[in-house]
Amino acid sequence: MKIQTKTDTFLKTLSLNNRVVSQNPSLPILSDVLIEAERNTVTLTTTDLELSIKSQIAVAVTESGAVAVPAKILQEYLSNIADDKLELSSEKETVTIISTGTKATISGNSAAEFPVVNKLPDKKILEFNPGEFHKIIGTVNVAAAVDPTRPVLSGISIKTIKDGLIFAATDGYRLAKRLVRQKSSEPVELIVPARSMTEVSRAFGEETDGKISMFVSKDENQVLFSGDGVQIYTRLIDGAYPDYEQIIPKEFQIAPLISKEELIKAIKLAAVFSRDIGSVIHLKFSKTGIEVSGITAQVGQGSSVVAASNVAKELTVAFNSKYLLDGLSVIEDEVVRMSISGPTSPSLLESRHGEEYKYIVMPVRTQS
Q1: pLDDT band at 219, cuts 50/70/90?
Q2: How far apart are CA 207 and CA 131, in angstroms?
Q3: N- to C-terminal Cα distance for the chain?
Q4: 121-130, 264-273, 339-348: lowest mean pLDDT where?
Q5: Which pLDDT value is given to residue 368?
Q6: What pLDDT band is residue 298 in, cutting at 50, 70 and 90?
Q7: 268 lies in the same domain as 355
Q8: Residue 57 β-bridge partners
Q9: Average pLDDT in the 224-236 region?
């Protein structure tokens, strides 16, 4: 194999692929990047067996071939090359890199040892604008579980309904649900790892141009996201997703409108005094506003009042401050509606305008 390419283009693509390369993989070959050169195109492939990335770059190929190379070592070396062009070639399992004034050889492995990343059927289920997809995942992923012992809750549920698609995530303490008014080519009900969705979102960025196409293979239990020379494959999560609709409250005692930024500031101030007690803060709702407070015997206490409208009843509810901040940070409105069912029932955060995004959070039960 022998190719000539621009250093920054190759390095940028390699950096994207290396996001799925583990520092301590279960198999040594998983620390490699597979480099395949053919017909003026080089394809880089990395995988951890759950998530795989294939990226293609237009290059000058003078000799076709393939080799697997330690991904992190290759990235570290290329990031220190000053020349804007490089030549990369392989002889058996040894890779040689030549640029102006520099030359290096890296010991690699046979391409035959690298795991096969299956090609999925060319049946497109969905298509997204990258910026729109980035926004969807950013608002839903905040509620996904990170506990590996609960794999179903570490995923994002995607299912079709009459009005479009529902993306939802929950860790058992909060729920993020987003309605996407878009039709799929056929009904879907999938659980995709939240980590994979984050990597897809990062890979394609927030561009308003271009398309991300989504393909599903139920036989392979995989989903493929493809666009702009990048293909990301991920395994689906087996299991039944919780019936989250039943925890969304239908009736509320109060539903005040609040300045999002003012509420965020008040929560952050109160959180200073609640770090040693599970980040628990108290919100006291009254006609004069919302008093947000935190108290710890060893540290002290602090409170502030935020203006609010439509507070018809006095209530005090305890919340995990981080959970509130996570939900508030992704609501795209200057004013939010915080609907409270009671001190022991789920509460709802949403924009004052629409119903496309809902963030439900469980209160914290306290002795007081």
Answers
A1: confident
A2: 5
A3: 71
A4: 121-130
A5: 56
A6: confident
A7: yes
A8: 42
A9: 93
User: pLDDT digit string (tens) for 11-24?
Assistant: 999 999 999 998 78
Are 322 and 223 members of one domain? no
d(CA 276, CA 110): 52
Distance from C-alpha of 267 to C-alpha of 273, rounded to nearest angstrom: 10
Asked if residue 119 belongs to a domain, the reply is no
Q: Is pLDDT at 278 greater than 90 in this prediction?
A: no
Residue-wise DSSP of 302-360: EEEEE-EE---S-EEEEEEHHHHHHHHHT--SSEEEEEB--TTS-EEEEESS-SSEEEE
Specify the long-range contacts of residues 40-49, CB closer than 8 Å, at least 24 apart: 42/3, 42/5, 42/10, 44/13, 44/14, 44/17, 45/17, 45/114, 45/117, 46/17, 46/18, 46/20, 46/21, 46/71, 47/20, 47/115, 47/117, 47/233, 48/20, 48/21, 48/22, 49/115
From 297, 271, 273, 293, select the one nearest 282 (Cα to Cα).
293
Helix H segments across the chain? 7-17, 71-78, 130-140, 194-204, 260-271, 321-329
Region label for 8, one of left (φ > 0), alpha (ψ between -120 and 50) or beta (otherwise):
alpha
Both structure tokens of 45 = 């492939």
CATH of the domain at 312: 3.10.150.10
Region 88-116: what's the mean pLDDT? 95
The percentage of residues in the chain with a pLDDT greater than 90, rounded to a whole number, is 79
Q: Which domain holds residue 168?
A: 124-246
